[in-house]
Amino acid sequence: MADVLLSDAEKTFILHGIQDNLREDGRGCDDYRHMEIETDVVSNTSGSARLRLANTDVLVGVKAELGVPEPIKPNQGRLEFFVDCSANATPEFEGRGGEVLATEISTILSRAYDNPNALDLKSLSVIPGSQCWILYVDILLLECGGNLFDAASIAVKAALFSTKIPNVSVLKGDEGQMELEISDDPYDVKQLDISSCPCLVTLSKIGYFHVVDASQKEEACCLARVIMGITQTGLVTALKKEGSGSLDPESVFDMMETGKKVGEILGKNLTAVLKEEAALGKKRKLVGFLR
Amino acid sequence: MADIRLASACVRTADVNPNRQELDNLVTPGDIITSDTGFMRGHGTYMEDDRLHASVAGVVDRVNKLICVRPLKTRYHGEVGDVVVGRIIEVGQRRWKVDTHSKLDSILMLSSVNLPGGELRRRSEEDEKMMRHYLKEGDLISAEVQSLFMDGSLSLHTRSLKYGKLGQGTLVTVSPSLVKRRKTHFHNLPCGATIILGNNGYIWIAPISGEENEDSAGGGYEQNLEPVSRIDREVICRMRNCVLALSQNKMMLFDTSILYTYENSLKFSVSFSFF
User: Fold this and answer.
1) Which DSSP string corresponds to A217-258?
2) Looking at the UniProt record for this protein, which Gene Ontology cellular component terms does it annotate, in alphabetical order (chain A) (predicted)?
3) Residues of A with CB below 8 A from B168's CB?
4) ipTM value > 0.90
5) pLDDT in tens, B44-94
6) Shortest Cα distance from B40 to chain A (angstroms)?
7) Domain B83-265 has what CATH class?
């Protein structure tokens, strides 16, 4: 990942700050930085969202396409995650530089969503065994300011919230085969129930303590972290340990407790904000990218 | 704990003061500066159809017949005597490479630093071997621009006791054009923090250190790694957020503006972040 150089004294300063529960920017250990979110920013997608978490900037687009379901899950649709690390974010991403990070993010996201209690994939099925909706979720990292995993997952959830899938009616053809009729009315659509979509919460172990939403500088001080996928009911759908450092079993337990607590609040706040934006309807002012 | 806002609900700088007075010498790329052909074309301008256009967004500077446009958003353009804050990125042959947010890496020669022990002594081979012991990759220093090389890269020096390696504290980066040029860029603010406003837009905020025993054998290369008290830390956090708030709103940074912002921020809690 885009690492920053820090001197020993700066690292010590950050470390002691976390011990005092007062981080560089005045936050406590369990606080997220402020986020700004906007949905429906890209017109040629089924749903999109842009999230700005301090300096981290993520754009997510969802495209719904009809396809063939997987043979082992004939009556389910599916999600396909793809992450693109723009070289605009950091020169390190140029060429194939961002590939490792991109796969890491898409893998953990598919793992978090691969849970019968997460997104209801059965609702994406059209004709069991032959046709279903496939949601291609494209994540574009525009700027790196730390905590890319959480930012990506929040933006994905928001984009899924704004996704509108055309209604499909299945007609019996002449010779027994099925015919699909896709509605082209932009209002004849269905929306996904995102209330059980997980958000990722990354807990970074710095010194003897752990923090959520580490900034880039804090990430440079952190040797081990735990990434959790948590729904707003507190269900853990994915868990991954990352980094070169090791973790004490007891601290893993502590981190999970914090993660669950923070993840629940995060999910609830996100849903509330998205509902608020949806309620604005046509009165909503589009902010977009130029500002 | 997790504060999420709508992008449309956030107040933009432009919304706060819509009829902010326009500067008449402010241009954007493509703007016609003059159709008079009597002027000379300087940096940030180009000639098309016998008219002089701006190629960058910035302020028009006119010296006699020469017209330049000084860009507002730019990398640091060094001048001799500037105070800068930089980060060591490479240790090389008798020199350190320093990142100062300028176009090219700046250089700090072994011969232009104060070494522990003596005032002025020849740099021996031993010193050269000890270079990484004094300053290593990632270390932050405050320095002064000694001279400019032919290609525009900077040569720095730390031959004064006020310059040298920086200890505990926090670095904030802002646009170099926001730092006002003053007589002094080192300030011990009365609220209990010391601030170095680097001309290159790197701003260092640190706790006020006690009595400095400069003459000690460390020569400024020994760092105090004792925990900073919570009170000092709060001051530093608040100061950092104040500097960022000022830079977000494109306000000039100097001791008075920072101090006023700090005093006005006291009615809010520390915990708030732009970045």
Assistant:
1) HHHHH-SEEEEEEE-TT--EEEEEEESSS---HHHHHHHHHH
2) cytoplasmic exosome (RNase complex); nuclear exosome (RNase complex); nucleolus
3) 9-10, 12-13
4) no
5) 999 988 899 999 999 898 899 999 998 888 899 889 999 999 999 999 999
6) 34
7) mainly beta
